[in-house]
Amino acid sequence: MLIANARMYAVTPKVRDAWRALFGWLGHHADIPLNYIDHAAPAPLEALWARDDLAATFMCGYPFAMAAPKPRIVAAPIPSPPRCRGAAVYCTDFVVRADSPYQTLGDTFGDRIGWTVSHSQSGFNAVRRHLLDYRSEGAKRLYTQSIGPLVTPRKVIQSVLDRMIDVGPLDSFVHDLLIRHEPDTAAQLRTVESTAMAPIPPLIASPSTPLETVERLRRSLLAASTDPDAAPILEDLLLAGFAAIDPADYDRLVTQAHEAEVTGYSLPA
Length: 269
Hints:
alpha/beta, D-Maltodextrin-Binding Protein, domain 2, globular
């Protein structure tokens, strides 16, 4: 049986259950049985992405662009919050404690920044590329400490709240789901700046998953926004629907990494 997984966006137990329900709907609609697995942290995502039985699993766009052989893209989610403007995009929010004195990202310079893992787009690559524009010719560091790998967005959140770091990167879709489903925690955070929008992590299948299977799953996901059974699940997940996406759209994430690396900017710092 092929598997599905939404660990990247299983922000709370309720959200995880909503993803499980969505994949149950998908398997029924596409007539392809799917086995939902959690693969919870600290299990490495790289081990999940390397499996040969994936049918619908979120994969970060940066490692997707670097992967060989390339996984098959099924579809990409379209977040419903207005800032995504009906597109399959997301960004990184730089978050601080709500009660902190920081008003702008520049106010955090000279203090401590956190990051997730070096293969993450939202938690590392986008952060590094965004900060690159703030570095002057003589300034090699913007922060006194660069703390990582924190691995997960949840650890970034907790590190900000526990004052282990002063500012941290948060995937905007994770952030929006947190605001919706865990508002008390979200209220303790404040965004001081966000990166430019980028292609959101897609749902992928293993390279060996039959193309006909992938196409059936894709057709079902593209139809989800008009299916009355899927509607309440999509609403819980802050999804307007799903989009077909060109794998080449993620190539620019590799370009962003290269732009930082050629300047010697190896870490968000």
